[in-house]
Specification:
mainly alpha; 10 helices; globular
């Protein structure tokens, strides 16, 4: 998020938005897919549009992220996890892909994969208070109590605890150290 903001403030782009007509058309298809995805009746057509967009722009990580989110929403956890793993190689979406990959693996009850994503996420520097809280929650979800407690304590020692809602603060205080 900070990286993207810095690029925008400097007048830079991540890559040419649409360097070719095919890439431009892929963006149009992706936008249409996102709009149609809101309607359950149009979900299959939406997915077809997104796959066509990816065919036209196979290296577009944002399209891959959109597909991963679609797969996650439909419960295709293995496909989502594979996509998040691929997306995690891109520096700009590294944290997002690791976090979503770990969440997907937790939902799919695949603790080894969840741990792999979470361990990699824990190596991100600097860790924001949000990521510290998410890492703690992920470790707790896979019953890694010692790691969860370590990250909950790290968050509680930070001066940024006020950024969390009262409900979130209560959860941190009452659940830390328990699995």
């Amino acid at each position: 998020e900070d990286k993207l903001l810095a690029l925008i403030e400097n007048g830079e782009t991540l890559y040419p938005i649409a360097a070719t007509p095919a890439q431009g058309f892929a963006e149009l298809l992706a936008d249409l897919s996102a709009a149609l995805h809101m309607s359950r009746r149009q979900a299959r057509f939406s997915l077809s549009l997104l796959r066509t967009a990816l065919y036209l722009a196979p290296d577009n990580i944002f399209l891959k992220l959109q597909l991963a989110e679609s797969k996650l929403a439909e419960g295709a956890y293995s496909a989502a996890i594979d996509l998040y793993e691929d997306i995690a190689e891109a520096p700009l979406l590294h944290e997002t892909a690791l976090l979503q990959g770990a969440r997907s693996a937790v939902i799919a009850e695949r603790p080894d994969e969840a741990r792999r994503f979470t361990d990699t996420l824990a190596q991100v520097t600097p860790l924001t208070p949000f990521l510290i809280a998410e890492i703690a929650t992920l470790y707790r979800s896979i019953e890694s109590c010692e790691e969860a407690l370590s990250y909950y304590n790290r968050l509680l020692r930070s001066n940024n605890i006020e950024m969390f809602s009262t409900e979130r603060q209560a959860e941190l205080h009452f659940s830390r150290g328990t699995c």
